[in-house]
Amino acid sequence: MEVIIKTDKEELSKEAAQIVKAALQRKPNLVLGLATGSTPVGTYQELIRMHKEEGLDFSKVVTFNLDEYVGLPPSHEQSYNYFMYDNLFNHINVNPQNIHIPNGVVPDLDAHCEWYERQIQKAGGIDIQILGIGSDGHIAFNEPGASLASRTHVEGLAESTIKDNARFFEREEDVPRFAITMGVATILEARHCILLANGENKADAVAKCVEGPITSQITSSALQMHPKATIIIDEPAASKLERRKHYKWVYENKRKLYSAQ
Ligand code: GLP
Questions:
Q1: Residue 197 alpha carbon, nearest atom of ligand 1
Q2: Which of 5, 109, 190, 210 pairs with 240 at a CA distance of 20 to 30 A?
């Protein structure tokens, strides 16, 4: 795992957007896995800026979102579908036909999950997967106990996640109890996983993800098995990492090493 510690959310957002930009310039038909939540919003704003000011072209990009609440139609203001259009898709030149987000109101959820997996395969797999992390250490909606071999499936939300996400709804009772989520194994197949986290409330989860044992109780810890996982976090989110000085040293010196070549 590569751990990149930035001073604040703005800096980590820029770092993540730069990685996406470089990949997009190398491969215009990049398959981009996207996440919702407050964490990646700064990265999306930076990508929008790059599109508007630097002409970064998304016309051939194919996107796959990680998850969606079961029971919320795409038009619902708290659906992840709505979130993605509002925070990114409406502001860049992505082709709507290339956008994939699980649909939480289909009659056959399991068939839909299988279909979603097939779409990822058909697209040739995900090149870069952006991830956030839940305060319980989850990635996408893979809650503690979700199989590390899981594919796209329906997951029951943990009590802590319902509480965390209640801030977006009028009442806690309104938070959906189930979600469709890419599985841990689906996520691990992405060629490059980039996990973002900011704020002290993520420090515990980040420490378990990076330095704890690999366990289905902290599904993000499965990223330790990934050949190319980049963890981009701010100082407060890094505060409980025992080896944070080492990660910083490696980051600084690796740059020097490569630029000297
Ligand atoms: C939800 C999403 C996750 C996201 C997490 C953290 O549970 N399913 O993909 O990482 O929220 O959200 P935030 O970035 O708002 O802290």
A1: 14
A2: 190
Residues lining ligand 1, judged by CB closer than 6 Å? Answer: 35-39, 66-67, 132-134, 140-141, 161, 165
Judge whether 108 counts as a catalytic residue: no
> What are the boundaries of each domain within the chain?
2-259
- CB contact at 8 A, 85 and 44: no
For 6-25, the pLDDT digits (tens) are 999 999 999 999 999 999 99
Active-site hit among 67, 68, 127, 155? 67
Query: Residue 236 belongs to what H/E stretch?
Result: helix 235-238
CATH of 2-259, one of 3.40.50.10190, 3.40.50.1360, 2.60.40.420, 2.40.420.20: 3.40.50.1360
Confidence band of 261 (pLDDT split at 50, 70, 90): confident
In the annotation, is 143 catalytic?
yes
